[in-house]
Amino acid sequence: MKKLLSVMLALVLCLGAVPALAEDTLYSFPALGMEITLPENAKDIGLDVIAQENLLNLTFQNDEVFTALLLVERMDTETYNLYFGDETLAQQLRDMGMRILGRQEGYTYYAFFASDFENTADYFTNVLGVDYSLYSADTKAQIEKAIPAVKAASETLSFIPIVPEEKKVGAFTTTDLEGNEVTEDIFRGYDLTVINVWGTFCGPCIGEMPELAAWHKALPENVQLIGVISDVSVGGNTDTARGILEETGVEFVNLLTSEGLYPLLNMSQYVPTTYFVDREGKMVGDAIVGANVDGYKQFVEDYLNE
Which CATH architecture has domain 173-304? Predict the structure, then answer.
């Protein structure tokens, strides 16, 4: 559950009356399929909107805190049903304040609004997992005054047609587990690279490792498989990761997390998530969320036979 909410903050307000609509600013995010309107003075009072491929956050920031007061997430409906199809869990999420905004083009949109809570402290505790009492009185006062603007903005949220953006793994520099420097040039020698983003804390990730290890040895010469260890950064302790890979027989390259890989990791709402990229690092097809080696194999077969 924490992953569902925290990946929105990796990541990562209104003094007086809300301005008239004519003074507001419309923010459109075609790749996400949503738009929202903020008051003209939003930045002056600490409000900003941040959007990524599957996330939209209305954030508040001052010298003490950077946090989200409105969280919107988009998930493909098949994956949503897989994770949250159980009615008991769905009810628990609704009890926490989650709203289903709607569905379009195969996606389900859901959100948490600070303005939905009578007690702002409950929003921070139940949704963000943050102790609201730790904030200074001044910060709490600013947040409380911001809530009407958050509510006004939330009422402007609407769907727009989705216009996909070209997705690409940008330039990066990192190291593998052996300390060798690795850049985006790792893609250039292969028609297709399979990138498996995993974590040492993730049971399903570890569970599929032996099958990935065997598949790696059977891949054609123009396809490579690499791993990205989401919770081990360059310079961090690699003992646990090394132990997992040794025990599961993995011999393919595994990269440590670095700043240049943050955009990729921010797209990974859950682990394992597996991406497919061409020689230039451009993503082809859709990412596969969850352990699904048969799905990876089928994608590679279909891609090579196109």
Answer: 3-Layer(aba) Sandwich (3.40)
